[in-house]
């Protein structure tokens, strides 16, 4: 399914929710694209390719095509090698967190593995290794400190089968340069521990992280919102950023466990004053051509994955080309914005927690509150209960894949004399 937010510019959130279009993608020779739950997913830097890896399938027989990618330009799928690690062979991971690291690739960390009980990680040199097994975390990469920040999720230690929620009083971090694990203290009043949430690095500043939704065992609010209220309370949803000022919260499930088809639109221009929008108006609001070989004749704004009724839904915010003069103007504005961001010298990473606790327990006020911010984990645990750039930064079938979660990038690092291939913490493509 896809939603053309340009064609629907000016529509309310209720109207947009009725404008989803079902399409049939070209499988492009990919064998058996199976439904899966809790896969690792990531939008590649080209902004139009969605990478899916692993996931849990109910029959536990293993996915035929474990690592696949969907291209929104040509509406087609591609297959890539599955993650393989001697002596275990192919390993199918789910519940891991995902982060894209410029010049390195996509890294997946933690999670469970279908059937196998052996922990796995392959980063060549790691310091201060965590001592527990994480899952259901979210993560963002901070370009200033070269660290991946992990938020929320659950963990279990090696001696007990019980799982515990991570506290938001701190964030587990991994430095991709030194290979050091650490813990970053976060100031302010932390939200409660949770899974099924999203964390979005807001591109308006690249210093603020927006946490939305989630669920935990304390969710005892069973009130069903009436038709005049927004479905703000949700978990296992998708967060799709559009430009630098808007964030779409799409799908998910409510406190009663029922799937939600409505959406929430947030104005995130000023991270300290986030507000809800009743309608979305696109600056390039012109009708897209109906007949197109791909999902758009213009640029893809964002792609995300949402789990609804046990299947995968590709959520694509589409954009049509405007007049050339306007495109040039927009390009200049983006370049200026990039120069502004590059002048930021502070090493501090602001974490915008929003008073999200109220969001997944009760309906919050129109404007969200803002709190600026100033361990433990390891790798895989078995669980038998269930649970770019113009070119995709992936290795096509038939070539040697850098084992485990590493993607080669032709962009040369500004920190090294030669291109870098990083073996990611705890694996993935």
From TrEMBL:
Keywords: Kelch repeat, Membrane, Repeat, Transmembrane, Transmembrane helix
First and last residue of the signal peptide: none
InterPro entries from the UniProt entry: Kelch-typ_b-propeller (IPR015915)
Taxonomic superkingdom: Eukaryota
Transmembrane annotation, as ranges: 301-322
Name of this chain's protein: Kelch repeat protein
């Amino acid at each position: 399914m896809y939603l053309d937010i340009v064609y629907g510019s000016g529509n309310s959130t209720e109207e947009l929710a009725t404008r989803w279009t079902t399409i049939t993608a070209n499988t492009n020779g990919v064998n058996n694209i199976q439904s899966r739950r809790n896969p690792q997913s990531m939008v590649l830097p080209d902004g139009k390719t969605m990478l899916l890896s692993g996931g849990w399938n109910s029959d536990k027989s293993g996915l035929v095509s474990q690592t696949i990618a969907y291209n929104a330009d040509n509406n087609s799928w591609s297959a890539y090698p599955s993650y393989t690690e001697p002596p275990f062979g192919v390993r199918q991971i789910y519940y891991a967190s995902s982060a894209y690291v410029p010049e390195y690739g996509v890294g997946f960390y933690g999670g469970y593995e279908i059937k196998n009980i052996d922990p796995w990680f392959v980063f060549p040199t790691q310091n201060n290794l965590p001592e527990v097994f994480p899952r259901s975390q979210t993560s963002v990469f901070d370009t200033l400190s070269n660290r991946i920040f992990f938020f929320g999720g659950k963990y279990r230690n090696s001696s007990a089968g019980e799982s515990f929620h991570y506290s938001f009083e701190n964030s587990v971090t991994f430095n991709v340069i030194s290979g050091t694990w650490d813990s970053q203290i976060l100031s302010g009043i932390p939200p409660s521990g949770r899974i099924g949430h999203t964390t979005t690095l807001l591109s308006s500043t690249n210093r603020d992280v927006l946490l939305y939704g989630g669920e935990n065992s304390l969710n005892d609010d069973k009130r069903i919102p009436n038709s005049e209220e927004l479905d703000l309370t949700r978990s296992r949803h998708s967060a799709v950023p559009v430009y630098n000022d808007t964030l779409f919260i799409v799908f998910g499930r409510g406190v009663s466990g029922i799937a939600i088809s409505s959406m929430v639109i947030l104005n995130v221009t000023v991270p300290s004053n986030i507000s809800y929008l009743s309608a979305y108006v696109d600056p390039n609001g012109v009708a897209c051509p109906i007949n197109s070989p791909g999902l758009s004749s213009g640029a893809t704004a964002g792609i995300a994955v949402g789990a609804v009724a046990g299947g995968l839904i590709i959520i694509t915010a589409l954009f049509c080309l405007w007049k050339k003069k306007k495109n040039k103007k927009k390009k200049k504005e983006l370049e200026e914005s990039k120069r502004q961001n590059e002048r930021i010298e502070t090493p501090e990473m602001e974490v915008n927690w929003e008073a999200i606790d109220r969001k997944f327990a009760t309906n919050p006020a129109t404007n969200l509150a803002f709190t600026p911010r100033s361990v433990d984990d390891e790798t895989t645990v078995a669980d038998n209960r269930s649970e770019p750039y113009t070119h995709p930064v992936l290795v096509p079938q038939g070539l040697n894949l850098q084992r485990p979660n590493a993607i080669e990038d032709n962009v040369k690092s500004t920190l090294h004399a030669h291109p870098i291939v990083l073996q990611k913490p705890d694996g993935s493509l």
